[in-house]
Amino acid sequence: MPTKKWSAGSPRGGAAGSVRGRTAGSPVVLGIESSCDETGAGLVRDGRLLGHALASSMDEHARFGGVVPEIAARAHVHALTPVVREALDDAGLTAADIGAVAVTTGPGLSGALQVGLAGAKGLAYALGVPLYGVHHLAGHVAADTLEHGPLPDPCVVLIVSGGHTSLLLVRDLARDPITHLGDTLDDAAGECFDKVARVFGLPYPGGPAIDRTARTGDPRAVPFPRPLTTGPSANRFTFSFSGLKTAAARWAERHHAAGLPLPLADGAASLQEAVADVLTRKAVAACTEHGVRTLVVVGGVAANSRVRALAQERCAAAGITLRVPPLRLCTDNGAMIAAVGDLLVRAGAEPAPLDVSIDPSAPLEYAALHPVARGPHPVTPGTYPVAPGQLPVAPGPYPSG
Fold first, then answer.
1. How many CB atoms lie within 10 A of CB 111?
2. Is residue 157 within 8 Å of residue 170, measured between CB atoms?
3. Cis-peptide, bond into residue 107, ω within 30° of zero
4. DSSP reduced 3-state for 364
5. CB neighbour list of residue 45: distance below 8 Å, 6 or more residues apart
6. What sign does the CA torsion over 137, 138, 141, 142 have?
7. What is the pTM of this model?
8. Fewer CB within 10 Å, N or C, the chain?
9. What is the mean pLDDT of residues 90-104?
C-alpha cells in the first residue's frame, strides 16, 4: 500500500547525529497508531518530532460510506512495516536508534488495534526496549505539544472527532488523571457530519465534504437547533448531536418530498455553524468557569475551518489563549502516539508488560493504557539479533488479547 509522508516541521534527527543512539539524553520513541483506517508511525525525542509517515485505507472504505473493520485491519497488516521504515528514513534513523516503543491500545477497532499492538510488541521484544500502551485520545491531546510545546497546567481540552466529543481538564498529561467536564451523550460531532453528508449525497468522509460545500453557503439559512445549550446546568458541558443530525435529515427529506432541489451549500453551512457554535460555546464557558486561560482543540474535527475560526474569535473575546495543532496533526497519526510515549518515558512511567492487550472501548482516565488479557499467554523465550539498519521480524507467538 502506498504511504503518504508529511514534512515533520521540526529538525531532522540525523542532521548532526544529535539524536542517534540510546545513551545520550532521552531515548527516541517510536509511536504506532492503528486504531481505525490510518496506519501511522512517528519518532519523537524530548518533545521534538523527528520524522513520521502515514498510510490510509480511506479510499477502500469510501464506497461503503464508512470504515469496514476487516478491510482496515488487513490494510494495517500490509502497511505497518513500510510505514515504520518510511518514518525512520524521514528521521534519518535506523531501527537500532529506537529506545522505546509506544502503541495505541485503545479505544478503536479491535482487529485494527491488534495489528498495531502485535507489530509494536515484535519491535520492542526484538530490540530489547520498553513498550508503552497509549490511550488514543491522549495521543490527540499530546499532538499539540509537537507544535506548541508543553501543555499549560491546567488547560481545558476539547477533543472532537468522528467517534468522540469531550471537554477535559488536563494537568500533567503523563502523571495525573484526566478530568471529564462533559462528553457526548450520543453521536460525536464528526459522526454527525458523516451521517448528514450521506443524507445530503456528499462523499465520505463527510467532515471535509461538509466543510468544502459550506464555503459558498449561508450559515444562517437554516435554523438548525443548538443541542443542550439551554436547560439544566448539569448539561452545560455535555454534548448531543443526534437531534441535530435528525433535524438536518428531516430538512433534506422535506425538500425531496416536495420535489425541490436541495440547497446543499446553505444546508452544509448551517449544519457546520450549529456544530461549531455548540462546541466553542461550551469550551469557552468551561475555561471561564474553571479559571483556565488556555483552550486546546484537538481531533479530526479540529481541522474544520469554521470550528477553528469561531474558536479563535470567541477565545480572543474572552482573553483565552487558543492552541490548535496544524492540520496534519489533527487526524490520526503515529507522531501523536510517540509524543505520549516520550512524555511517559521522561516522567519515569512504568512500561507495559509484554502481555499487554487492547481495550476497544477504553474510557479516557490516564494517558497510559495497559489492559491485560485474561488467561495465560506464554511468550516463547529467545533472542532475535537485528542487523544494523534493519527492522526485526516479530518472533512468535505473541499475546494477542
1. 18
2. yes
3. yes
4. coil
5. 13, 19, 25, 26, 27, 28, 29, 342
6. negative
7. 0.88
8. N
9. 98
